[in-house]
Amino acid sequence: MPGICNTNNGKCFCTTKGIKGDRCHLCEVENRYQGNPLKGTCYYTLLIDYQFTFSLSQEDDRYYTSINFVATPEEVGPHPRCWG
């Protein structure tokens, strides 16, 4: 389970940015995170050729120890022949 859980009430503080829920069982789809934390993790898909900044300065961010990204380069077709 990707979180630190209270043994008295079972509520968890998720340690991976993009994961939410009392049991750290959901992805923050409203913030564009995808995946399944019960079968792995949640991740944020990066767009190629963009610069991203993620801030972890809010009080709720204090438990985060990781953030996951995925970036898929554009598919490159066959190279044109070069003639000298």
Overall structural class, as computed from helix and strand content, comes to mainly beta
Strand residue percentage = 25-35%
- Rounded to the nearest angstrom, the distance between the terminal CA atoms is 59 Å
- Counted up, domains total 1
State the helicity in percent bands: under 10%
Spatial strand sequence of the major β-sheet: 6-7-9
Classify the oligomer: single chain
Quote the average pLDDT.
Answer: 85
Which of globular, elongated, flat, extended, rod-shaped describes the shape?
Answer: elongated
Short description:
The protein is mainly beta and 84 residues long. It contains no helices and nine strands.
If you had to describe this structure to a student in words, what would you say it looks like?
The chain is elongated and about 60 Å long. Helix content is 0%, strand content 30%. β1 and β2 form a beta hairpin. It is built from no helices and nine strands. The mean pLDDT is 85. The protein has a three-stranded mixed sheet with strand order 6-7-9, with no helix packed on it. The chain has one domain. It starts with a strand and ends in a 13-residue tail after the last strand. It has 84 residues and is mainly beta.
